[in-house]
Amino acid sequence: MSETGSAMDRLLGALGGGKARGLPPVERWNPPFCGDLDMRIASDGTWFYLGTPIGRPALVRLFSSVLWREGGDYFLVTPVEKVGIKVDDAPFQAVEMAVSGDADGRNIAFRTQVDEVVSVDGEHPIRFERSAGDGVKPYVHVRRDLWARVTRALTYDLLALGEIREVDGVAQFGIAIAGAFYVVAPASEIEGL
């Protein structure tokens, strides 16, 4: 089976409650800070080292497995050292989406650019930010306070699932996923999105 087919199988499996692969326990490591590394994750999810894109996907996956966030700062953490890196927006990009069911029974799973699969639920919520230049930007929680920004193409597909519901007496445009309703914007403002 091809790598793409395998990733899609995992994506679809996540809709049925599949488990993510094991990751290093960086939350239990407390190494000394060793300074900043000239490494950056661009807003499109591309990893750079010394200003050059890292072209080996396996290396990016390895680095992403030891990524840690403290407040607004990002680090790569091993048992013996912690180095700071820069992240332009979110460290991950949600590049593929699978949807099953509809309305309150809808399930949605995303695959990130590092081949990590998450299914939207209480532990992996989705949130929406709005900005004048970028419109609506959805993010899905991946792990350890690390988020994936949903790509623009998937954002259109995601918003197409939206509906208007009353939330606390206010009509809101949002998306029902796994029994929860994720608000995008007040219904009165959806024409401006």
Portion in strands: over 45%
Q: How is the largest sheet built, in terms of strand order? A: 3-2-1-6-5-4
| SSE class | alpha+beta
Unreliable sequence segments: 14-20
Query: Which percent range fits the helix content?
Result: 10-25%
Overall shape: elongated
- SSE topology string: HEEEHEEEEEEEEEHEEE
- Total helical segments: 3
Mean pLDDT: 88
Rg result: 18 Å
Biggest sheet layout: 6 strands, mixed
Distance between the termini: 40 Å
By DSSP, the count of extended strands is: 15
Notes on the protein architecture:
Helices cover 16% and strands 45% of the residues. It has helices spanning 3-15, 57-65, 152-159; strands at 33-41, 47-49, 52-53, 67-70, 73-77, 82-87, 92-100, 107-112, 117-119, 126-131, 135-143, 146-150, 163-167, 170-177, 180-186. It has a 6-stranded mixed β-sheet. The chain has a 6-stranded mixed β-sheet with strand order 9-8-7-12-11-10. The protein has a 3-stranded antiparallel β-sheet with strand order 13-14-15, with no helix packed on it. The longest helix is centred in the N-terminal third of the chain and has 13 residues, at 3-15. Mean pLDDT is 88; it is low at 14-20.
Question: What order do the helices and strands come in, and which of them pair?
Answer:
Elements: H1 3-15, E1 33-41, E2 47-49, E3 52-53, H2 57-65, E4 67-70, E5 73-77, E6 82-87, E7 92-100, E8 107-112, E9 117-119, E10 126-131, E11 135-143, E12 146-150, H3 152-159, E13 163-167, E14 170-177, E15 180-186
Parallel strand pairs: 1-6, 7-12
Antiparallel strand pairs: 1-2, 2-3, 4-5, 5-6, 7-8, 8-9, 10-11, 11-12, 13-14, 14-15
